[in-house]
Amino acid sequence: MTVHVRTEEFKPNRTALPRSLVRRRFINHEYAFDFEIGQRVVLLCTNELAVIVGRTQVLDCEDEYLIEILGADCVPLTGVQAHQMIDATPS
Asked: What is the mean pLDDT of residues 61-67?
């Protein structure tokens, strides 16, 4: 078995990559997420109250949210999608 050890910090040469492999982000300022950061939501699978702490749009225009469950001592949940929660604002 060969063990490979880095002798210096790895820094990729991004200029040597083809353009199709270089990750480019296009920002659409008109895009509206279903939930805002800081908004309280209820998880449909567990009926627990949570708060949105981050959000991102991934491939195929899927919104994913980073949420913290209120009252729980755990790391925030990642990859939660809009169809898995509802707004907790009383109407």
From this structure: 87
- Rounded to whole angstroms, how far apart are CA atoms 15 and 26? 19
The CATH architecture one would assign to domain 29-87 is: Roll (2.30)
One-letter identity of residue 83: H
Q: pLDDT class for 53, splitting at 50, 70, 90?
A: very high
Strand order in the sheet with 77-81: 77-81, 62-69, 49-58, 40-43, 85-87
Which has more confidence, 8 or 68?
A: 68
Phi, psi of 45, rounded to the nearest 5 degrees: -75, -30
Burial class (CB in 10 A: 0-12, 13-18, 19+), 50: buried
Under DSSP, is residue 25 helix (H, G, I), strand (E, B) or coil? coil
Q: Tell me the domain boundaries of the chain.
A: 29-87
Query: pLDDT digits over 30-52, tens only?
Result: 778 889 999 999 999 999 999 99
